[in-house]
Structure formats: C-alpha cells, structure tokens
Amino acid sequence: MQVRRVVDVVLMTAVLGGAAYFGYTYRDQVVQISRQVTAEFVPCKSTISYSIGAVDKRFGISKSTLISDLKEAEAIWEKPSGKDLFVYEESGGDVTVNLVYDNRQAATDKLKVAGIQIDRSRASYDSLKARYDSLAAGVEAEQVQFKRLVAAYQSREAAYNAAVESWNRRGGAPAPEYERLQQEKEALEREVAQVNARQARMNDDIDTLNALATTLNQLIVQLNLNVSQYNQTGALQGEFEEGLYESAAGVRKIDIYEYSSHNVLVRVLSHEMGHALGLEHVADTEAIMYKINEGKTLALTKADIAALDAKCTSGIF
Fold it and tell me: 42-101+257-312 — its CATH code?
C-alpha cells in the first residue's frame, strides 16, 4: 500500500507539473479557450473583445476608419439587444480582425475603376455575363489583329536590320541611303510605340475580363447557379467569401477579403461578428446573417433578432 501511495504521489506531481508547464507555456491560448467555453455555456453574458491585426494597404483604409466601421458593425447587434456584446481593444482582443487582399478585392477594385456596379443577385450575374461575353469577343478579335500587327512590325524591323548590316559590311551607306535608313528607323520607333500602346489597351481589357470572370465565379457559387465556372486567367474556382470567421486552438479571427463600399464592409463585419457570437446562417435574404451579403440595410431583421435571442437564452444559466 505504501509503494502504491508513493507511485500515486509521483504521478499526481507529474500531472500537475505538466499541467502547470502547459498552462504557463500556452497561457494565452488557455485563457482564450476558457473564455470560449464560458461563452458557450453562458452566451451573451460577457463581452467579446476584438483588435485589429494585419490590414493590407491596398485596401486604402485607415486604422481609424476601420475602427469606426467595426464599432458601427457591433452596434448593429448591441442596440436592438440592449446588450454590451463587443468591445474594441487596441491589442490582445479575443478576436483579431484582418483585411486580406487577394484576387477578390483586386477584381472589385478593377470593376469599380471601369464603372461596373455589382450586387449579389441573378440580375447582376446576367448583366455581368453579357458584358463578359461581349468583351471576350472583342478581346479575341483584338488579339488576332495584334498578332498581325506584331508580325508586320517584326518583318519591317528585320528588313531594316538586314539593310543596315549590309551597308555596314560595305563600309557605310551613301548619304541618300543613310537618310532613308534614318527615316525608316524613326518610322519603326513610332510603330513600336503604337504596338506598345495597343498592347497596353488590350492588356487592360484582359484584366477587366479576368475581374469579371472572378466576380462571375463568386456569383455562381453564392447563388448556387447550375452553370460552368469561368476558367479565365486570374479566376479561381471554389468557395468564395467576402469574410470568414475562424476559431481554432483558442485563436479566433475575422478575415475580410472583399468589399465594394462602406455599407458592404459594415455588413460583412457585422455578419462575421454574428458568427463570433455563435450564430449560424438564417433563411431571410435581407438578414445580416444570410449566407450571401445581398441586403442593403445596416440593421437586424426579425430573423437576426430571433437567432440572437435563441442563442442568448441557450446557456445553462
């Protein structure tokens, strides 16, 4: 019995020591996991703090503006509920908010410059598809003409170079021939400038085409359309999201990938904050928590409020 007790003490000491070491080494994760567990059993009873993490400068948004947008997004949940659900902290918040720039925002920026407005609707998809098809046909025709233009220039340039080399082998061209070659050189320089300008315009059209393809692919997934996705260069296939809330091993974050206006950004932030509260998607297409960000107002719908009320009363206390 005495030996068994010694063994028990040794094991208990090892367990407690290991737990203490783990708790010290991963104390931030332990604290966060503890807060998440508490929030699950007693939801809406304590505030969720959030801080700003990485913000890609290509979004062109200042930290102060983003803080203001975040506070507007949290107010969407707090005012109707009368609860203090979120709080901003300069650093070390429960949730880190990042703005991640990728092909989605690049496409939105490109279409905005081109004056192309989009929303998350079938009508928008049909309009963008018609524009894509028209532009694709134009680009295809332009590429054929451009190849001919380049071939003609290269042929003319080769003839010029051959003439210069021939006269150089003979010790130089006579004055009239030299003058003709100089004029031809200047003509080639003007021609290559025209070729480069035409290529720049064509590349701009191709960039717009790719942006349209990326946006169309998003709409195909979001609207669950039974059509093929576009495989234009720069367009990606698969799940598209303007934002994403993730929670793993005590680390919680909101990544924002794309928005086209202030209202859209605030709705996306509020949607992901809803997920941070533990809410799932609702069926109301105008709701903040609808799976697609196609609503226009910055206010909760009855479906949002019902989901929040159900969550806040789902705890054990």
Answer: 3.40.390.10
Digit-coded pLDDT (tens) for 17-65: 555 554 555 555 554 555 555 555 566 888 999 999 999 999 999 999 9
Query: Residue 254: beta bridge partners?
Result: 97, 245
Give this prediction's pTM.
0.75
Of 225, 272, 266, residue with least CA distance to 253: 272
**Which of 138, 153, 267 has the alpha carbon at shortest distance from 212?**
138
Residue of 235, 233, 202 whose CA lies nearest to 216: 235
pLDDT in tens, 191-227: 999 999 999 999 999 999 999 999 999 899 888 898 8
Confidence of residue 144 (pLDDT cuts 50, 70, 90): very high
SS (H, E, C) the chain: CHHHHHHHHHHHHHHHHHHHHHHHHCHHHHHHHHHHHHHHHCCCCCCEEEEEEEECHHHCCCHHHHHHHHHHHHHHHHHHHCCCCEEECCCCCCEEEEECCCHHHHHHHHHHHCCCCCCCCHHHHHHHHHHHHHHHHHHHHHHHHHHHHHHHHHHHHHHHHHHHHHHHHCCCCCHHHHHHHHHHHHHHHHHHHHHHHHHHHHHHHHHHHHHHHHHHHHHHHHCCCCCCCCCCCCCCCCCCCCEEEEEECCEEEEEECCCCCHHHHHHHHHHHHHHHCCCCCECCCCCCCECCCCCCCCCCCHHHHHHHHHHHCCCCC
